[in-house]
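The instructor's notes for this session suggest beginning with a concrete chain rather than abstract definitions. Hand out the sequence below and ask the class to guess, before any prediction is shown, which regions might be ordered.
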Amino acid sequence: MIKCEKWGELGGKDIFLYTLENSKGMKVRVTNLGCAVTGIEYKGLDVALGFDHPDAYLSQSSYLGVIVGRCANRIKGGRFTIDGKEYQVGRNLGDNHLHGGFKGFDKVLWDVESVDETACQVRFSYLSKDGEEGYPGNLTAKVAYSLDEGGCLKIDYEAGADRTSVINLTNHTYFNLSGHNAGSIENHNVRICSDHYLETDVENVPTGKIVPVVGTPFDFREFHRIGERIDGDDIQLKYGGGYDHNWNLDDAEGLRLAAEAFDEKTGIGLQVYTTMPGIQFYSGNSLNEKNAGKGGAVYGRRCGFCLETQYYPDAVNQKTFLKPVFLPGQIYRHTTIYRLFFV
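After discussion, reveal the predicted structure:
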């Protein structure tokens, strides 16, 4: 079942809020503003951070629930070179580029391309014009959200440009499996299916070194509580104020399990499957929203965590990283699934 309601207006165009619901009562709310997930209800709890009003999505700085692009995560100095030409994109995080720049895909109104009741799917599209935030080429991005009977929120990404360009999209939903308004996620247990993570510099930009997790606080090959080692004496944790790092998944191809989490208190678990080569685990270290969350909730530090599937941060500038650079006619196509279940 899909319910649609008008949620507001932006630039004379309608903002819509869609509710996808399966027969078991799980609900996912998505909007064409920032192509955002605004809520995920499971077992009577809303486990995704979000806002009650569309204006808050335009003024927020933490990317709650939105699709970010044209390039997710960081680009060092906001600069990269394609075919011998250097491009300068928006430097909206100090000297660096983050999540598409000052007005990325999270701050625009997407078109509603299709609504499929049978598949319980809503598909959005957005045309990013040549030169937007400094990126080359006219790029068309499409994102489809689908909900199935097994508790899976499936996100299908597709994009292509008429010039060689960078394409790296992700969803930035913050999860709290105790409920969006339950406070700290430090008691959540997390497992990440990876033997290596990316070392970063003081600005949280990868140095290019791919580091084994063994013997470090980044070893999540078995379940660990998020807060168990988060404030330890490790320079990488100090740089990020906690976890804000990329783990490497490119030792396998196709859709595979990348990470999972569960909350002992509620018994709600989360699994993340993806075709992407990397996953960014972010422990919400900088959450400090001026705008109140849903129902007046206050989203403070570490009250939500993200598992963002993506190409590696700053991959466009790193020689050894798989580059998210696509030629004209070459299609960017990836899938990520967030599966909720009862432990």
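Then share the key points. The helical segments are 54-59, 235-240. The first helix runs from residue 54 to 59.
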